[in-house]
Known about the structure:
Largest sheet: 2 strands, antiparallel
Strand content: under 5%
Amino acid sequence: xxxxxxxxxxxxxxxxxxxxxxxxxxxxxxxxxxxxxxxxxxxxxxxxxxxxxxxxxxxxxxxxxxxxxxxxxxxxxxxxxxxxxxxxxxxxxxxxxxxxxxxxxxxxxxxxxxxxxxxxxxxxxxxxxxxxxxxxxxxxxxxxxxxxxxxxxxxxxxxxxxxxxxxxxxxxxxxxxxxxxxxxxxxxxxxxxxxxxxxxxxxxxxxxxxxxxxxxxxxxxxxxxxxxxxxxxxxxxxxxxxxxxxxxxxxxxxxxxxxxxxxxxxxxxxxxxxxxxxxxxxxxxxxxxxxxxxxxxxxxxxxxxxxxxxxxxxxxxxxxxxxxxxxxxxxxxxxxxxxxxxxxxxxxxxxxxxxxxxxxxxxxxxxxxxxxxxxxxxxxxxxxxxxxxxxxxxxxxxxxxxx
Length: 403
């Protein structure tokens, strides 16, 4: 349902991109950010974040599986989507997403996880029974050699895959900002900084998501949270968030300085229809508050005990996730609320139980956590007693002679 103020063209009254299109770049951003966090340990050798390495990879995979579902639901005819693979259109950024997604899913993320877990997969395929044994047998892909030489090769290849995955993660999410930034007819979107802003906001949201998941899962398992790990993650999250906020402010200052014919209309929207979601939620509560709190933890880290820092990190991570979602909302929904003539405005009412309503969005938000639960059951990301027992069995696994 929409309400119109002023003059709008007939084809502008209805908003064609709904909350599902808000959710899509938000989920892909979490994928990119989680993978970047994993690369800190694998490529850049930041040993402090090692406890979250595997969890970050599984989190990225869980959200990547869920990423195209909002688009599929929005299409109405999802059975038509495979046509992008059979009838490639190299000049369409939307069509090329299919190839970017397939490359990142199969050639990068799944392959890296398989290489990292191959030893455990082989051992579990020999120790488990029933359906699980069959699943692990399939996951071995016929490779049961886990000799030291073979595992060393896995490590080397995995490093290369992660290195390739970093620009691939940027490409996966940066193209979303590219699509919006290249729409010249919409001054709210048309900005060369849009892809860069999307990438950095994706990084900070993904890092925040993994931080919260690590703290929550560690608490549920009744283990001790590695404070060196969470302090280091919070430090990187703080630095990335500063860059993200600076880029957004640079874009805003440029728009104010340029003050073209669309400025009055955009300024009106910021002070009315988008005031709460952009000024209050995105900038003040979701950006300035966590930046100040994270600054305090960086400057007076030793003056704050572990419990206080944990609470600050949980609060900041939650606010950052809300802020990035608000940013996606303001870009996608906000960019459709004004007329191209700058003489009228429309509104967007989020319905409850429709194909593109609130319940569908909530379901698609919960779904990746169910995927993550299944992945964790199959491939535990932590070194608890059972995982150590599995690893110890590798010394008794038969290896191919000569390796």
